[in-house]
Amino acid sequence: MLNKSLILSLLVLFAMAPAANAEVKLIAIGSLDGKIGDRSTETSALLENGVPGNLLGGLGSGLAYAGNNTFIGIPDRGPNAVAYNSAVSDTASYINRFQTIKLKLVPSKLGSALPFTLTPSLINTTLLFSKDPLYYGSGTGLGVPSGVPALNTNNKNYFTGRSDNFNPTQISTYTNNARFDPEGVRLSNSGEQIFISDEYGPYIYEFNRNTGKRMRVFNLPSKFAVSNLSPVSDTEISGNTSGRVTNKGMEGLAITPNGKTLFGILQSPLLQDGGTNGAYTRIVKIDIATGATQEYAYQLDNIGTSAKPKYPTVSEILAISDRQFLVDERDGKGFGDGSKAAFKKIYRIDLTNAPEVSNITGENNLVGKAVSKTLFLDVVAALTQNGIKEEDIPAKLEGLAFGKDVKINGVEKHTLFIANDNDFLGTLAPDTYHLTSVDNPNKFFVFAVDSTDLPGFIAQKIKGKDEDSRGDD
Length: 473
Description:
This protein is mainly β. It has helices spanning 4-16, 233-238, 363-366, 379-384; strands spanning 24-32, 62-65, 70-74, 97-107, 116-127, 129-130, 157-158, 182-187, 193-198, 204-208, 214-218, 250-255, 261-266, 280-287, 293-299, 313-319, 324-330, 344-350, 372-378, 397-402, 406-408, 411-420, 427-428, 438-439, 442-449. The longest helix has 13 residues, at 4-16.
C-alpha cells in the first residue's frame, strides 16, 4: 500500500508535468487566387520584370488579426521569383503594401471533409510610404531604370522591394533607405497602427493603418546592421562578418496582448553568431513607449546530423501572453519548391527564466542561454493526416495569427490561422510530382486549439472599426 507522503509526492509531480496536447485539429482550408490583381489599380502597370505591379501574391509573409473576421496580410518585397536581372537579385520596383482581408469561418454542411468552411475575400489594399524623402537607386550600370516609383509625389515617397534602393554611405539600418522587405505584421490594440518588421535593415516600422504613412522607426542596435551593402545578396553576405544575414533579417513579429511590447525574431542567426551555420538566433523585445530593447536566444533544431549540422529558419512569432509565444520553424521544402515538405513545426516558448543576451556574442557563448521550447504542432504531420501530400504542402508557411474562437460539439476552441507566401507565382510549372502546371494560390489553414493546449492564453483586444468579438457573429 502506498503511504500518504508518497501519494502526495506523486500528486505534486503530476501537477507539475506538462499536459499532453488534447488536440490541435485542422478545421478549414481556404485560398485567394494568386493570378488576380489587388485593389491598388494605380500600381497595375508592368514592373521591370514584366509582372503586374498589383499582382495579389505573397499574402502569408505576415498575417495579423484585426478583429472579427478581419486580418492584415503582407506581401514581402515583391515578385522576385521571376528571373530577369541578377544585378539587383531579380528584385523589381514593387511598391510595398498591406492587404486587408476577410477570413470568414462558418460551420460546414453535413458530410464535408472539414468541419468548417473558410471563405477569404480581399477588402482593401494600402500602399506604404514616407512623407520624408527616401534614397533610391539610379539603376546606372545595373541594366535597370531608376528605382524612383512613378507614383511618388513631394509628400509620398513609396517603399519598394528593389534591392539597390539604399544609401551606400550608410549602414543597412539607415532609416531613409527606400528598400523594404516586409516579413512580420501586427496591429496595435487601438486598431489604428500597423507594425511591420523587415529583412533589409533590419527595421521595425510603425505605419498609420488608414493611410499607409510611416509614423515611427524602432531602431535596433547597430550590431544587427551590415556595413557593406550590395544589391546582390551573395555579395552582401560575403562582404560582412557581422550583422544580419542578407534576406534573413527580422522575419517574425509579435505584439503582447496588452499592446505594449513588440517581439521580433531573426530568420537566422547574426553573422557573428554563426550565420546560417549557427544554432542560436535572436528574439528582440521592444518597448513600444520608449523603444528600449532586450534580447533573448532561440535555439534552432538540427535537421542535419551531429557531424554536419543543418538548421531550419524561423518564419514567425506569435504572442500567447506577455511571456509565452508560438514560433514557426521550417525548412524550405514543399509545394512551390518542387520537393516534399519535411520540417514545419510550431513551438511554444517561454521567456520566464531565459537570460537577457544583448551583451553576449558568438554561438558558443549562447549555449545554455536559450529560451525553453516545447513542440506545439507538427504541421506536416497534421496536414498529411488530413490527406494532404507532402509535395502539396506549401514550402513557405510563414504567417501565424490567432482568430475568433469557435464552438465544436459545444466546446469553445481557439483558432490558429497559418498562411503561405506563394512568391507571387499564381501558377507553377510542372515538376517531379505534378505533371502539368498547377495553381498556386494564397492559402490559409485553420486549426482549432483546445484551451488546455494554450494555458495562460490572453486574446489581444482590437478596438475601433473592427471591434473584437471572439464568439460567433
